[in-house]
Amino acid sequence: MADVTLTAALRSNLLSLQGTQRLLDQTQLRLATGLKVNSALDNPAEYFAAQSLNNRASDLARLLDNMGQAIQVLKATDKAIESLTSLVQQAQALAQQAKDDASSGAPQSSIDVLATSYDGIMTQIDNLVGDSGYRGTNLLKGSVTMTVTFNETGSSFLDVPGVDFVHGDSSPTGLGIDTATGVWDVNNISTTIDVSLTQLSTALTTVRNQAEAFGTNLNILQTREDFTQNIINTLREGADKLTVADKNEEGAKLLSLQTTQQLGITSLSLASQANQAILRLFQ
Questions:
Q1: What is the dihedral of CA 60, 65, 69, 70, to 10 degrees?
Q2: Which of 83, 45, 66 minimizes the C-alpha distance to 146?
Q3: First CA to last CA across the chain, in angstroms?
Q4: What is the pLDDT of residues 89-134, one digit of tens each?
């Protein structure tokens, strides 16, 4: 079958229409997706630069979630320490009452009742410490260390060391409070009840110092959380500047291209009229 021969005018108009249609398709895609760079074919440099920025933003977003959970761990720990402080103060009140009663000549049986109540508070301290964990992390029991990573390479991080606040632990991270039942003696106040009061005073200082340390770590984490969120927003904004289309501009282009397409069709029609005139000569 012989090829169809087109005049130069028809071919020129046809090529112009095909180019206009390609631009229309491209503009419609940009309006549909909101992106001026949809693939590496559109603009390799901007596409891969934006992809790199978005990848880093995604990595930091995962770390941001971990920071948020670490903050919740410290908040749970802070609430537990508040309650723990109250229990230690209650124990102090009982020990002071036992000392005052023993000094006033109260019988040993009365002191034993107070000692039993005192040991009940020690049990509650241990229970409270055991229940203060958040999602499996308990900074008040077992002396665990919580590590929070701040960047995608792992080179920036914060270690939050825990303690072991069970009442009988005499280590530097423990409370070091002994039980009172069978120990408090009206005849030996200075070596029994006074010892408990000293232990409680030391334990209260330890708890307050640890509360300050956890509070400092909490402030650091909240600062890094805000910073990381801002960095993520900056990275995504930078990626958008490389790939996001200006819909006002694309809308204007679409209107212009549609007008150009209509004019091209009209021009093609006019260019074909010469051939039609020749055809009429043979009719």
A1: 0
A2: 66
A3: 24
A4: 999 999 999 999 999 989 999 999 999 999 999 999 999 999 999 9
- Domain at 46-242: CATH code: 1.20.1330.10
Where are the chain's structural domains? 46-242, 248-274
For the cut 80, the answer to whether the pLDDT of residue 83 exceeds it is yes
CB 160 within 8 A of CB 74: yes
- Radius of gyration of the chain, Cα coordinates, nearest whole angstrom: 39
Q: For the segment 173-205, what is each residue's pLDDT rounded down to a tens digit?
A: 789 999 999 999 999 998 999 999 999 999 999
Q: Both tokens of residue 194?
A: 């006074």
Do 236 and 217 contact (CB within 8 A), yes or no?
A: no
Q: What share of the chain is helix, strand, coil (3-state, %, to 5)?
A: 70, 5, 25
Q: What global pTM score does this model have?
A: 0.77
Spatial separation of the C-alpha atoms in residues 283 and 278, rounded to whole Å: 9
Contacts of 176 (CB under 8 A, 6+ apart): 168, 169, 170, 199, 202, 203, 206
